[in-house]
Amino acid sequence: MDRAWFMANLWRWAAGVPELDSPPVHRYTRKQALGDWSEQFIQLMRNRMVLGIYRYGSYKSPQAPNYDRIGSVLKRLRLYGDTGNQEFLVDSANLLMIEFDVGDHPNKHFCAIDDGYHTEIKS
To answer: Where are the domains of the chain?
Structure first.
């Protein structure tokens, strides 16, 4: 039995999800998978976070204002859709990271839900 196929299907069997018919075609090492990150995107996020600390202070500070980060993310994503300006994506990513870190949602938690929601393929 192919080990990669077995491991790919193990959680599927436990979750009652249909198994893969055959072993995965693409096999990547961890190093290759980590190489798929956009270094430019990450650097732009970092640059804006550093600038934000100089402008507004740390988002972790007890004196930090309570912003509507989710509403702001949705607005920025609409603006990206209208204009194509990728800065809105970088700003959204930073706001989401801050929300993840210090958000105040009353039911805030992390629960991995593989095979929940996926990106749809455009036709």
So the answer is: 1-36, 37-106
